[in-house]
Amino acid sequence: MQLTPLHIKGGRALGGEITVQHSKNAALPVIVATLLSREPVTLHGIPRLSDVYTILDLMAHLGTQHKWVGDNSLELHTPEILNTDAPYALVSKMRASFIVMGAILARAGQATVSMPGGCAWGPRPVDQHVKAFRALGVTLTEDGGNFDARREGSLNGHFVFELLTVGGTHNAILAAVLGDGVVVLDNASIDTDVVDMVEFLNSLGADISGAGTNSITVRGVPELRGGSYTVIPDRIEAGTFMMLAAANRCRLRVRNVRPDHLRAVTAKLQEMGVQITEDGNTLIVDATVADLKPVNVTTQSYPGFPTDLQPQMSALLATVPGTSVVQDPVYPDRLTHVAELHRMGANITVSGYTQVIQGAKLHAAPVKAADLRAGAALFIAGLTTEGETVIDGVQYLNRGYERLAERLRGIGANVLQHDLALAMD
Ligand SMILES: CC(=O)N[C@H]1[C@@H](OP(=O)(O)OP(=O)(O)OC[C@H]2O[C@@H](n3ccc(=O)[nH]c3=O)[C@H](O)[C@@H]2O)O[C@H](CO)[C@@H](O)[C@@H]1O
Ligand SMILES: C=C(OP(=O)(O)O)C(=O)O
């Protein structure tokens, strides 16, 4: 579908309040995890995003029936697995879909899943997923761009991840939930999205302990029941809006947040001079009280500063006088925002995964998002400038931000876009 670019007339005073959607990166694995139950499941807090529509297409192929009940609630039911393959046409659209391997394997004993391939900014290997499966007793072969996974009986054993991987931890847990084995995963991810999927699975009768620590134990159970669950708020979207407020030197109430999920982000913005106050599940972000200072930022796994906010932070720092250094060792190639920010007058020098950013006054320009968070960096930058910034590549923004133009208009922005949720309804 050809989408109209996002048109932003920046430089207007922004303020008021904005409500954060529920988490894309938590919702996707929770949706996939419903494959483990034969019973109907109702999920609340599912954002209307193209990634959600993509995973639902893949799940329809596997045998899941779904129905939206209200704006952000979804009923899912997989009485039988009808196909055990996840074809390239569906998996290649979205890397997160690779975790269907664990779920199909658990439910059907065999899964053929296309290799996810690279993404917009560089390689994203799945070697840890593969090593975990093999260590836990799965026979896994590669053929013609597909992984074929088979298990005889239940998964059993102990695997130590060589690095922290969110998706690898999801995949291994999903594969181990059904059966009568015991699986211990060490050096597991402690990411909020792993904890959310585990809480959901346990609410259906799974026996998983240790989520949120580096050692997770999954004891197989014969089956899961149905149920309902609400996905956590989106900490990446919340962080995006916090940086937007800082870049605009305005005061914004950011609603529907888990402040405890945002400690590293809050601390870095406070170090810059942004005042942040907690009011229950609202953060009041005030960038009007002091001149902002440059800072140095390095991405890490949760609870460190997230790579998914690195481009947005870079856009913010591009507006702050002085020298900031941003490093993204998690994804060293995640730099597609840089050339586009240069078009808007940003002064960023790149060496390896290090950006040296000299703050400057940005100006409007036609730009193109090449991936989701690069797109977010561009709308943050565009909102700070006088004149009209036209952002192409809106399909990437629709992967991660629900009804973006409408919500930005709600805080005073002059933004035009054909929002996805409206287009799909
Ligand atoms: C849909 C979703 O939730 N995506 C998030 C998830 O992606 P995803 O789960 O794909 O990211 P991982 O946590 O697996 O990746 C973390 C690091 O481990 C490396 N790695 C990962 C797996 C593997 O088998 N081998 C390997 O070397 C990656 O290259 C990266 O450097 O976590 C990333 C890191 O927080 C976020 O940027 C993504 O937004
Ligand atoms: C990179 C992201 O998602 P994915 O892992 O699906 O590419 C993201 O949410 O920023």
TrEMBL record:
The cross-references to Gene3D superfamilies, in alphabetical order and at most eight, read:
Enolpyruvate transferase domain (3.65.10.10)
Q: Give the GO molecular function terms.
A: UDP-N-acetylglucosamine 1-carboxyvinyltransferase activity
Q: Which UniProt keywords apply?
A: Cell cycle, Cell division, Cell shape, Cell wall biogenesis/degradation, Cytoplasm, Peptidoglycan synthesis, Pyruvate, Transferase
Q: Does the keyword DNA-binding apply?
A: no
Q: Kindly list the positions annotated as binding UDP-N-acetyl-alpha-D-glucosamine.
A: 95, 124-128, 308, 330
Q: In which pathway does it act?
A: Cell wall biogenesis; peptidoglycan biosynthesis
Enolpyruvate transferase domain location: 9-408
A family per Pfam: EPSP_synthase
Which residues constitute the catalytic centre? 119 (proton donor)
Q: What NCBIfam families does this protein's entry cite?
A: murA, PRK09369.1
The entry's function note states: Cell wall formation. Adds enolpyruvyl to UDP-N-acetylglucosamine.
Report the sequence similarity comment from the record: Belongs to the EPSP synthase family. MurA subfamily.
Q: Give the protein's recorded name.
A: UDP-N-acetylglucosamine 1-carboxyvinyltransferase
Q: Which organism encodes this protein?
A: Deinococcus radiopugnans ATCC 19172
Gene name tied to this protein: murA
